[in-house]
Amino acid sequence: MDDDVLMYFRFTISLPTVKLSICPPAKNPNINIQKYTTWTVKWLHSKIIIETPCNKAKAEITYFLFLNKFEIRSAIGAPTARPSHNIAVAIPDSIVLSSELPSNLGAHRVLSAKNVPKVIAPTTEVIQISLNFSTVNIEHTTICLKLSALVETSKTEWWQEGWSLPAEATPIKPNDAEKLINNSFADTVFFSNSGSEAVECGLKIARIYQNGKGNKTRHRILTFHGAFHGRTFLTCATNDKQKFSELLNPYIDWCDNIEPNIESVKKAISSGIGVILIEPIQGQGGIKVMNEVFMKELRRLCDENDILLFFDCVQCGAGRTGKLFAYEHIGVEPDICALAKGIGGGFPLGACLATEKAAKYMAVGMHGSTFGGNPLATSVGNAVLEELLSPGFLKNVEIRGKYLKNKLEDLASKFPIIEEVRGKGLMLGIKVKADNQKFAEELSHRGLLTVGVTSDNVVRILPPLIITEKEIDEGIEILTQYLSEKSSD
Predict the structure, then answer these.
(1) Could you tell me the pTM of the whole model?
(2) Does residue 208 register a pLDDT over 50?
(3) Confidence tier at 271 by pLDDT (50, 70, 90)
(4) To pair with 3 at 20 to 30 A between CA atoms, which of 13, 150, 210, 372?
């Protein structure tokens, strides 16, 4: 290969296999690339290793999840290339939306999905106390078996939005909407495919409500520092802007983001606020539990000013805190609530719940979704709800959460590297005096999976809701050993 030749590698990724094809450079389309097409590709932790069978030449490619590219950083003995030659920029076909574990923790192969899942890390078997941002909350095997049965019974089912199949032609009969309404504040439910969609739906309900009442100047959305509500364009505008790329500017300019205190809210609501959107417990914001007095004052101010109160329970719902919804701990009910992640047990499902008052002006055609609320997705949601609402399940989550939090607080008293233990139920976090992402990665090498991708230098701990006391002890033992090593450095 000439020194000035830039080769382009295209990856088709359907894990665990990765197919590699090579495109000739534009400068020299007639170049012989046959000898490069026999390269094999395999995963190794957070990198991809490319090898040629002829001379074992290697090139390491760093996995850039958000940049939509792989960049070869080094190539040793690559065919006709100098060792320092930057061979290529590789462009993936499908990796950006991969459902793999975040790249900072590597790609881990599942060993067992029974009870708390065991996965193969780069060097060891690990205990997973992080469930992909609170998505698969209950026993993997149970959900897989139920999903398998649902798929089997729905092989002849065909779905199209707006068509109503007769009961005898529909073997799947989901009733999770009824379960959600019977166990929440809501009178209505709209099903979507994700949390972002559920939040978007709720914001549309709020806008339509204010316009329907003639309050056309009340179109602004109020959110709070540390907020994360999704990655669609509107939900990005409601997030804490400091956490997002400047490349998204200008954001939608009718979203205000303020400090979560009541004085700031009182000042803000005079500027045409129509809805207040808040997470009862911030996930991406650093596992921050909203103050109970503050939340009750929010409810009072909303009632006095005819502002809708919208709770985002995408991460802190579905039993994660020991209640079906996190707001139940504080005795404050919203007008609208978004739910997703854990409610689908790993299946794409979101739900927007609302009171009859909030949804008063919603009419046919004002909102819709091609696949939202399809029978298979809602049946999976129904299976999850059956598990969550089974006798004693949520109480057990509460008990395990207190046990784990007490253990973490004991460690915080012994190891100054832990500044604070936060959270409720099994939605916990530890604020550390270290790089939280590196902290989480080093724990994964020792056999404990957490998530370091969060604000305020917090490591998120989101174990399966079916975790046992014994498994908690195993995880705490690994964490204790790691903290001991860190403190002696």
Answers:
(1) 0.73
(2) yes
(3) confident
(4) 13
